[in-house]
Amino acid sequence: MQKFLMMILAAVWCVSAAWSQIEVSGEGSVGYLKSEQGFSQYVIDNGNPTFIWRWDLFANMRISDNVSLMSNFRMLQDEVFHIDYFALRVTDIGSTGVNAQMGLIDLPFGNLGNRRFPKENPFYDLPLMNEHLTSLCESDYKLWVLEPQFAVKGDGVRLLDQGLYDLGVEAFGRFGIFDCAAALVNGMISETGVYAPKGLNANSGFGGILRAAATPMTGLTIGVSYATGSFMEDQHDDTNSAIYQEDPSEYPQHIVMGDVDFSVGYFTMYAQAGYNVWTFNDADDDNRKISHSDLKAFAYSVEATYALTPRLTLAARAGGLLFNTIEDSVPTFSGLVHYSGHWDRDEFRLETALNVHVSRELLLKAVYEWNRTYDVSQDPLDDVFILQSVVSF
Amino acid sequence: MKRIRKLNDIPQRIESPLDRQGLRRWTVMLVWLVSLSCSGYGQRSGSTGEIHGEITIKTNDELSDEIFRGRMMSRYTSDLSTAEKSIEPYSVSEKAVVYIESTGESKSYTVPDEHPQLNQRDLIFRPLVLPIVVGTTVDFPNNDKVFHNVFSYSQPKEFDLGRYPQGKSKSVTFEKPGVVNVYCEIHQYMYATILVLENPFYAVPDDDGVFVIHNVPPGTYQLSFWYGRKKVATKNVSVKANEVSAVNFSF
Fold first, then answer.
1. In this predicted model, what pLDDT tens digit does every residue of B5-18 receive, in sequence order?
2. Is residue B13 part of a domain?
3. Buried-state track A326-341, b at ≥16 Cβ within 10 A, e below 16
4. Whether the model pTM is above 0.90
5. Residue in A with minimal Cα distance to B153
6. A266–B160: do the CB atoms touch at under 8 Å?
7. Domain span including residue A96
8. CB A11 within 8 A of CB A2
9. How many Å apart are CA A281 and CA A343, to the nearest integer?
10. How many angstroms separate the CA atoms of A107 and A273, rounded?
11. Which residues of B touch A21 (CB under 8 A)?
């Protein structure tokens, strides 16, 4: 059904492209990926060498001078069809310089921008803070790190939820050297509403996001973003009755992030650093108080590119996640065992990439990811090598 | 209908070489003629012809539409205000060129001292098509408040100018003839063509589509019409000394 829908949409957009007010463009990428054969969330396909592909379609329709309908569609080798972005955008409302968009929007948090897409992203993955699955369970007040079988794997929420899209409304604008944005969305920055049942709001609150950035000189932008809201969904069983007494709105997430873009000549640099608190004090995990302190994380990412020649670009990115220490008692067959330590494993990732522009439309990327996990007896074998070719149209 | 117009009659009268003063005059004239023929420019109108014509545009200009649409809808690079959205569309003189493909001679022509410019202004390139002679240096001034990164992977000249701010300009010299497609790495919809021509026998039509190519040596040539992204027509034209040949194009 999804494939059929995708084909229909593609056909409609392509036919509509004949109308000059519609712009259809996109990217397609194919590649080869091989990760080491360890036990970690970064290991892909159990370490088997595998081919991969991805397809992005951007379809934007200009309704009038100030009104546009914009959309992104994405599909990967798992053939699951994603609509990442579907927003009605109104620009320069009342000649005030204020713009607004509503629908499935790209969240105004950090400086990811066009690097969401393979052609603009010199690497394969997004920054580690957008990719790493923490130990905080995404559907329950539970920490996987306290479950021995998940001690390393991690299967919970991300700090930043990948490309950062959610259903909501945003107002934004540029005023002199300042860019400002405010958004209200169904989900939260680490658990966007796109996973919620029926795509609707999973709890009684909204996530709020604020962003301000300044461009004091061409090539330098300094921004700060803040988000807060409930990150967990309402706890209901199949009869739609509350099974816990927990109210998600009592456990909001707060995250603040600073970012810097700098570029000059053949050099570009993007840096982000953020501090996050998932309020978790006395949350009830199966009637067991699992934590007596909030869950905190510090994340950073710095990436730089340098164009060696017109066709050759070198890129490197370093990113990390640091988690705070909690105290808890873990039930085992031999009784309660005291746990004291980080609530997730600290992570560090170094990515290096060589980008070759075969033509303006065709980019070849060779990427190597060094992944390092701390607080474990042995760092898992989970480095990844990727060869990827990307075409844009 | 072909219009033929007589140019000036050949004015000079050569005196007898036996006359001392006449001999000196003859020598001076010979040196002058040789130097002119080497430069390729300033050939006496008496020994060259002109090509006059007019282009008529009937087809919708999809390339300009594409560029302006991309400019309006660029999601992460420009949320333009109403005032910024309103810019002049490309005029005919910014996107059309009529030129002689080759004169059949492998000679170099003098390049202009003044560098032609490919401007980055209002988040587009202007003009859309820039014709130059081999050896010409082109300036790429940035007149926008934001960075641009002009580059080309075209065979005649690969270059990447990097990012530079408003008020700065960088230059590139084009030493091989051919078509150079120019882009901006930051604003993907930005596009322009530099036509690096073997000879200076080209013309940019005025906004009414009228063009004149001066000082064309007599001969039969292929006259091409470039519009927007590509060459859209070619016609044979015979040029005779002191005459005007008329060629019209429609697209």
1. 333 333 333 334 44
2. no
3. bebebeeeeeeeebee
4. no
5. A359
6. yes
7. 2-392
8. no
9. 13
10. 17
11. 69
